Amino acid sequence: MVHPAKRTRATNSPTRIRTTESLFANTSAEWRHTNVGRLLNNAVRRFETRVFELLAEAGHTEARLSHLNLTRNLDAGGTRMIDLARRAGVTKQAIAELIVQCEELGLVTRVSDPTDGRAKLVKFTERGLEWLAAFGTALKQAEHEMQQELGILRVDGLKTALKAYADAFDPLDRNGTRRKQTVADD
Fold first, then answer.
1. Please, are residues 79 and 111 in contact by the beta-carbon 8 Å criterion?
2. Which of 3, 47, 95, 172 lies in the 20 to 30 Å Cα band around 162?
3. In the chain, what are the helix, strand and coil shares in percent, each to the nearest 5?
4. Taking a C-beta distance cutoff of 8 angstroms, is the pair 62, 106 a contact?
5. Where does residue 31 rank: exposed (0-12), middle (13-18), buried (19+ CB within 10 A)?
6. How far is CA 82 from the centre of its chain?
């Protein structure tokens, strides 16, 4: 007779007990370092770190990498806090903290929403717009450096593939304004 602990629930047939050790004993951990998610994450971290190095070289040391969650989702004409939180995939409290930090740095301000007097819009200040222009320049330089390292065809192919994969997920349109919300966004 087979010990009850060695039977599966679904079939009640004999099977060996699987432990964490036995599950991974014969498999390589390479997948943990070569999966697309990890590679994309590492590439983004490397790219954004370089952008911020270039910003610092240009004299813009005010913002940090964490502030990108706010600035990359902020429309040119201003954006409500709730929309910023949704786009960034964070809580209202988390985006509120980033807003406070960026206000203290002089990059953004809150103003009354002209379409709803009860609501506030977060907008870039003049200093924030200067930072944004410097960020754009640093971004172009970092991309140029990537092209030098990997080759233009590889980088163009990468951009085309990533655009095809992620375009529907991007909450902003080409003009930097919010796309109409779809059922998938809820």
1. no
2. 95
3. 60, 10, 30
4. yes
5. exposed
6. 17
